[in-house]
From TrEMBL:
<dbReference type="InterPro" id="IPR021986">
    <property type="entry name" value="Spherulin4"/>
</dbReference>
<dbReference type="Pfam" id="PF12138">
    <property type="entry name" value="Spherulin4"/>
</dbReference>
<keyword id="KW-0732">Signal</keyword>
<feature type="signal peptide">
    <location>
        <begin position="1"/>
        <end position="23"/>
    </location>
</feature>
<protein>
    <recommendedName>
        <fullName>Spherulin-4</fullName>
    </recommendedName>
</protein>
Length: 192
């Protein structure tokens, strides 16, 4: 099985992403937009990203939104997230909701619960898919991700993009679960 590679720049960090079984896109940019947007409708802190997605319309962007190390404990995010996420939405953009998975020690039910929370956000600000962070890479923890991904797909369907971030190359089983896998996490100079 061969995989094409995407070099994804994220601010000063880079991520090498290997495509999983589902994806057929070329290069793109992943942005871990873990910062607060500022007040809507200006959304000043997200301004450079909002400008970038409108400027580079041929470039796929995968933008990870992360209200509170996940979707937060409330059913919907605060009104600034509700007002600013729509400004990121373009034909070249997939918005991904951040979900921590704690390298296999987080319960799959908690992961699926976060996925369900994002799924039920209002359509104007609902993500297009999900970003699983702190993903394990070994065979011991693979069943956690098989379970969590099955439960997530049962809610989200089979076509929503799911990106895993183990930060290293995982064992083969992970590649059939995620659309994208971040296999390198360091600065660009180290990657070179
Ligand atoms: C995940 O594991 C739980 C507990 O073992 C089980 O009840 C559930 O059916 C599993 N879900 C999937 C989608 O495999």
């Amino acid at each position: 099985m061969t995989f094409s590679k995407n070099l994804l720049k994220a601010f000063t960090a880079v991520s090498l992403v290997v495509q999983g079984a589902f994806a057929l896109v070329s290069s793109g940019v992943t942005v871990p937009l873990y910062i607060y947007p500022g007040d809507a409708p200006a959304c000043a802190q997200w301004g450079p990203v909002i400008t970038a997605v409108q400027t580079y319309t041929d470039l796929p962007f995968y933008i990870v939104v992360n209200p509170n190390s996940g979707p937060g404990s409330t059913a919907t995010p605060d009104t600034n997230y509700q007002g600013c996420i729509p400004l990121l939405r373009h034909s070249n953009v997939k918005i991904l909701g951040y979900i921590p998975t704690t390298f296999g020690s987080r319960a799959p039910s908690a992961i699926v619960s976060d996925a369900n929370t994002y799924f039920n956000w209002g359509s104007a600000y609902k993500p297009d898919g999900l970003f699983f962070d702190e993903v394990a890479s070994d065979s011991t923890n693979l069943p956690v991700y098989q379970n969590a991904t099955s439960g997530t797909r049962a809610i989200w369907g089979t076509t929503a993009p799911i990106m895993f971030n183990p930060g290293v190359t995982p064992v083969a089983g992970y590649f059939s679960l995620a659309n994208f896998i971040v296999t390198f996490e360091n600065t660009y100079s180290v990657w070179q």
